[in-house]
Fold:
Amino acid sequence: QPQLVESGGGLVQAGGSLRLSCAVSGGSFSTYVMAWFRQSPGKEREFVAAISWGGGTTQYVDSVQGRFTISRDNTKNTVSLQMNSLKPEDTAVYYCAGGRKSWATIENLDYAWWGQGTQVTVSS
Structure:
């Protein structure tokens, strides 16, 4: 059972940037699809970005396209989310997730392993 630990959240002003990281231990990281989801108070968990096991394919929710970039380092067992031009509506708890699918799936149910989440707050 892989363990996922997120870091890098915090408070930032609108227009600013943050970089989230997720360290994965156990299992075979290079064979997992990895993703970021987020959840705001009173809302359902939302897909943000996904990256295939080899890093060749990525998917983004429309609201972050062009502002966020997901990447992975299979030598360090890490996945990152670079977030630029942040908006107040990006405020949420961000979760790292991993699964066994071979493509960059956006489906919540395709991810078997989850981190504990990291808070991102964007002030206006």
